[in-house]
Write a structure and sequence with these properties.
One of its GO terms (molecular function) is protein tyrosine phosphatase activity. Keywords: Hydrolase, Protein phosphatase. It catalyses: O-phospho-L-tyrosyl-[protein] + H2O = L-tyrosyl-[protein] + phosphate. The chain is α/β, with parallel strands linked by helices. It has one domain (5-273): Alpha-Beta Barrel (TIM Barrel). It is built from 10 helices and 10 strands. The chain has helices at 23-35, 55-69, 91-96, 117-129, 147-158, 167-170, 176-188, 207-216, 221-228, 230-238, and strands spanning 5-10, 38-43, 74-77, 80-81, 106-110, 133-137, 162-166, 193-195, 240-246, 254-258. The longest helix has 15 residues, at 55-69.
Length: 280
């Protein structure tokens, strides 16, 4: 059986933030993940809502419950870090929510919903200075990033951040503007991956639908599949090393290389999707 999708942004831990209130609800959400074709997920609670040191034990509890119930989902630990929260964490806490091997560690950084782009840029610069790559969570919901021909977003991508579009945005759950921004990212090549940002039955995972939506926008099936499978899996296994220049053929959006050793000629993130997306 071919590997399934990988969801790098889902609020799965019970009783932590605005995700599942208890373990039963976590198991229900995990079942929805599996039904959507997902076999691996990272639990990404809002870091401000949890003691980072407790995340591994909470993830282990969820994995034990999943095995007991026969739900074929592997959960890894992580966290969604707000821009204002970056300076509040110790180096050990930052590493506790990071993913990837040494030399290619990355953190899921939340694009602020209040539109505080300057705060986001400062936080991203802090993480880069600390040696972390950045996966930018739901930038389509931070509308000022799209002013001036997506100038704020392109600035982050040019500095090596990878943009994670939420499937819930493509589904229209966050309004017309967020959906329009998500579509714009896919068509311009600025979307590095798609994750669910699922919270429960009212905000379920929808990676399959997002992949089909990407194809309807003109992306090849290979490209769309990479956004929900190959790229996120490679991020977990090989990490993220940014390439600090504007990539050609991607409408000014950044290019990303898996892992920490470029000398081996490893392919760019989304290389399976290297064909230029439709701009229609």
């Amino acid at each position: 059986m071919a590997p399934g999708f990988v969801d790098l942004h889902v609020h799965l831990l019970p009783g932590v933030d605005d995700g599942p209130p208890d373990l039963d609800a976590t198991l229900e959400l995990a079942g929805l993940e599996v039904a959507d074709g997902i076999d691996t997920a990272t639990a990404t609670p809002h870091v401000a809502s949890v003691d980072v040191a407790e995340i591994p034990a909470r993830v282990a509890e969820v994995n034990r419950a999943l095995r007991k119930e026969g739900i074929p989902l592997v959960v890894e630990g992580g966290g969604e870090l707000s821009a204002r929260g970056v300076g509040r964490l110790s180096p050990a806490e930052l590493d506790g929510i990071a993913h990837g091997p040494a030399g290619a560690r990355w953190i899921l950084l939340e694009a602020p919903l209040d539109g505080a782009v300057a705060t986001l840029h400062r936080a991203a610069d802090q993480l880069r200075d600390a040696g972390y790559g950045i996966v930018l969570a739901h930038p389509e919901r931070c509308h000022p990033l799209f002013d001036h021909d997506m100038g704020g977003l392109r600035r982050e991508l040019a500095l090596g951040s990878l943009a994670q579009v939420s499937s819930s945005s493509l589904a229209g759950l966050h309004g017309i503007r967020a959906r329009r921004n998500a579509v714009r990212m896919l068509r311009s090549g600025c979307a590095g991956l798609i994750s669910s940002d699922a919270h429960g039955p009212r905000r379920p995972p929808s990676l399959t639908a997002a992949m089909h939506a990407a194809c309807e926008l003109g992306l090849t099936h290979e490209h769309a599949h990479a956004l929900v499978a190959e790229t996120p899996r490679s991020l977990l296994e090989r990490g993220l090393r940014p390439v600090a220049h504007i990539g050609e053929g991607a409408a000014g959006c950044g290019r990303y290389v898996a892992g920490s050793d470029l000398s081996e000629g490893r392919r760019s993130f989304g290389a399976a999707s290297a064909a230029a997306p439709s701009r229609t």
